[in-house]
Amino acid sequence: MLTELETRLLGILMMIIMLGMGASLTFKDFRIAFRKPQGILVGLLCQYGIMPALGFLLAVALGLPPAVAVGLLLMGCMPGGTTSNIFTYFSKGTLALSIMMTVCSTLVAVLMVPLLLSFYGGLLDVSSEYVIPARNVAQVLVVLLVPTVIGIALRKWNPNIGATIELIGALLGVFVIVFLIGSWVPRNWQLLLTTSGNVYFASIGLGLAGMALGYMISRGLKQDTRRARTIALETGIQNGPLAVLIVTLTFTGTMQQQVLLIPILYSLFIVLTSSAITVWFRRITTREELARDSAKVPTTPVAAPA
Amino acid sequence: MDQNAVVYDLKPWVRQYGQAIPKELPPPRYSNLAQFLRESEARYAKQTAFTTCMPNGMHGSLTYEQVARYSDAFAVYLRECIGLAAGARVALQTPNCLAFPVAAFGILKAGCVLVNTNPLYTPSEMEHQLADSGAEALVIVDMFANKLEGILSATRLRKVIVCQVPQFFPAVPRAVIRSVMKVWNRALPSIAIEHIKFAEALAEGERAARNNSVDIASYAEDARVDTLAALQYTGGTTGVSKGAMLTHGNLLSNIDQALAMGSSHIEPGKEVVLTALPLYHIFAFTFNLLCFYAVGARNVLAPSPRPIGNLQRAFENYPITWVSGVNTLFNALLNEEWFAAFPPKHLKAAVAGGAALQHAVAQRWERVTKTRIAEGYGLTEASPAISFNPLSGTQKPDSIGIPVPGTDVRLVDTEGQPVPLGAAGELVVRGPQVMAGFWNRPEETARAIRDGWLHTGDVAVMDADGYFRIVDRMKDMVLVSGFNVYPNEIEDVIARMDEVLEVGVIGVPDAKSGEAVRAYVVPLADGLTEEAVRAHCRKHLTDYKVPKTIEIRRELPKTPIGKILRRELRAEYARGQEPR
Questions:
Q1: Nearest to B503 by CA among B451, B566, B447, B576
Q2: What is the DSSP letter of B558?
Q3: Alpha carbons B382 and B251: distance in angstroms, whole number
Q4: What mean pLDDT is predicted for residues A207-227?
Q5: What is the mean pLDDT of the segment spanning A179-185?
Q6: pTM of whole model > 0.90?
Q7: Residue contact B332–A289, C-beta within 8 A
Q8: Which residues pair with B376 in a beta bridge?
Q9: CA A79 vs CA A132, A191, A207, B8, B541: distances in Å
């Protein structure tokens, strides 16, 4: 776990990063995102349809002990994390859509997370009274939205300052990702050695399967490839720190340790897998850009401008 | 014969000029380009003249006053510090950036001759052009200056001046751009040869101007309309790059001619033009750089339009009113969601040139942006504009429009005799924009300009209204068993296949039919077969036009502005046939 100071520091870094992310956007980008509002709905469907079900199925299929299963289920029910926006940015995805999805899933979380937890918890027979810290959910929204809007405004006011802040945000983004991996491993070395294969499988599989299914479903629902990749990242990447917080507020003692196992492992591996997938997605996007560049005029009529 | 000539000499196209376009073209108001530049600089002094917009939105700008000051300083540097004489050739080799207009205008104000050079040239291409033009100084962008290393001794260069893409940017964005270029893109090689930085050259020029009380206006004083202003290199018909000698009068006239065609959509001092095509190319050079400088526009320079997303910031941050482009550029823009969903609100008109504008692209552009693309036609040898589709009045799809004012156009047969109305003939042109000849190549000049007519090598037809339509390049025509086959026609048919991205067609020697049609096809995705292409051709073409051989490949050789180079394809084929 991170110390109090590190958590604070990370929060500040996150705000600067989001300032940079915002500076890469215009209000027009959000209008483009809302031009196909079904994208956000598809995203929500993936977020709260696939991920909790995946968590449940993995817990059952792997026969995880109840306390560990609770951790997995909780992880599955979480809203999208803010790091998903950084990864979307680096993979040249539709950043405005990613941010809108994170905002929507976080807003809905206050209602959906308890609902889903009691439903799947009932099925697993591990129901418990969860404390959903509404204050923290609100905090996520503030960290996300305020700097983004300031970033957009800065960029509009002065593109030179905007682009510089965007670059600083991107550099800090890389720094945070490296920091998360670098500080996590030495601290939890013991945990990595004692964890069983099943738990590894669940921690890594939840994110990866979420991305794969997120991609397939959004493609099936007629989202273009770039939006589908954005939704995939958004679906697979959950708000790990929020899960950790909920666990510490809800459980105590050894029970807490066990429930925390998957959220902690997930938080490490999602950074690793997302980094790899981001590199891959970025290449695909670049290739598509160049192909579109020289593509023929479609024979089908253009959609009327919104 | 005279009867046929009358058809053209009556200039039926003048009836299409309407109210907006003057029937006659008065002689240029200035005796040289330096005067022309100074007038705009005085009239629009405080207005923004140029803005370079990087793909990430970082930008730097110069006002007309600043352009005047810096280009004057550069002129002084060339004349006083390097000691160049009037008429000395100075090459300029950079992508679109603020240094381009400053250097180009400085060269013209110094009374020197501007040699526009493609920055993507290989060292041997650079060597040819620098040696052929006899350039004594070179302004080159830092990204490519290392290419000079092996070739300096073969040139007459006395000074190399190195500029940068973010030249004249505020310090912080410039530092950011340069460190990204250096560390991330590795696009800034170290330069081993002796050189001076552009900013230092300007400072030296300003110092020299202060100390020696020079009269900058006197540098170009002797330049008249028939004085050489620029050497614009063109591959032309033979493949060896030759310098078209464009005089001050050529360029001044063509500015007036192009502005006459567009004046109905231009408000002096209020326009914002996007320059995505390279300024070293004659199209953007005359049209974007010179024409819009004349009318006090703000010129937004994009260093590279590839990928096309690089232009998004320019369209978002500036109220673009005019844009020039080639078919592929308009096509690429229309394929972007950010462009098609929110087309530029202030756009008034677009101009297409360089290669044929596809009908589908023009239609879609009109529907999306609610503005017209005026397709034009021109040649490096004609500074370049020869004809345009008028912006108001009748536009004919697939046509290159009507000749610009002050221009005579005829269609002639191989003997140089005018062909009857409606028949195909070589387009020849006479007018104040036609070059003085090819630099140091009297034979080539005599072949290109006969009896005062520039022979374009393009086969065209004219309709009764005076609109011209290009059929093909004369030298690209394929003679199959005595039948004329125009590659354009075959290319159009093959390009209609959904699986085809692009196609190039050439004629190759054939033992049986004299020449045979050969097609090079780039598929959109894997899986396209020669048989499928051939079957498609059989359905739409007479037998002798169907390609005898078809090659499926990944890409086609192209010019910097995206025209397919059939010449390269023919050379490649010939190489393949040589005994090994």
A1: B566
A2: B
A3: 9
A4: 92
A5: 81
A6: no
A7: no
A8: B388
A9: 12, 26, 13, 74, 60
Chain A residue numbers touching B58 (CB-CB < 8 A) = 159-160, 163-164
Instruction: Name the residue in chain B with its Cα closest to that of A166.
Output: B56
Residues of B in contact with A295 (CB under 8 A): 331-332, 335, 501, 524
- Do the chains contact at B340 and A302, CB–CB below 8 Å? yes
pLDDT of residue A1: 56
Angstrom distance (rounded) from CA A79 to CA A238: 6
Domain spanning B21-406, CATH class: alpha beta
Instruction: Using alpha carbons, select from B263, B232, B264 the residue that is nearest to residue B250.
Output: B232
- Cα separation of B301 and B450, whole Å? 38
Question: What is the spatial distance between Cα B126 and Cα B129, in angstroms, rounded to a whole number?
Answer: 5
Taking domain B478-577, whether its CATH number is 3.30.300.30 is answered by yes
DSSP assignment of chain A, as one string? ---HHHHHHHHHHHHHHHHHHHHT--HHHHHHHHHSTHHHHHHHHIIIIIHHHHHHHHHHHHT--HHHHHHHHHHHT--B-THHHHHHHHTT--HHHHHHHHHHHHHHHHHHHHHHHHHHHHHHT--------HHHHHHHHHHHHHHHHHHHHHHHH-HHHHHHHHHHHHHHHHHHHHHHHHHHHHHTHHHHHH--HHHHHHHHHHHHHHHHHHHHHHHHTT--HHHHHHHHHHHH-B-HHHHHHHHHHH--HHHHHHHHHHHHHHHHHHHHHHHHHHHHHHHHHHHHHHHHHTPPPPSSPPPPP-
- Report all structural domains of chain A as residue ranges with CATH numbers, in order of start: 4-280 (1.20.1530.20)
Residue B195: pLDDT band (50, 70, 90) is very high
Other CB atoms within a 10 A radius of the CB of residue B114 amount to 28
First-last CA distance in chain B: 51
In this complex, how many residue pairs, one in chain A and one in chain B, have their CB atoms less than 8 Å apart? 93
Residue B180 sits at the chain A interface (C-beta within 8 Å): yes
For chain B, what percent of residues have pLDDT higher than 90? 69
ipTM surpassing 0.85, yes or no? no
Q: Which helix (H) or strand (E) holds B202?
A: helix B198-211
What pLDDT does residue B240 have? 76
Structure tokens at A58: 């993995």
Q: Which long-range contacts (CB under 8 A, 24 or more apart) does B409-415 make?
A: B409/B8, B409/B462, B409/B468, B410/B5, B410/B8, B410/B9, B410/B453, B411/B8, B411/B460, B411/B461, B411/B462, B412/B453
Q: Would you kindly state where each structural domain of chain B is located, as residue ranges?
A: 21-406, 478-577
Average pLDDT over all residues of chain A:
85
pLDDT in tens, B26-72: 999 999 999 999 999 999 999 999 999 999 999 999 999 999 999 99
Shortest Cα–Cα distance, B493 to chain A (Å): 14
CA-based diameter of chain A, in Å?
65
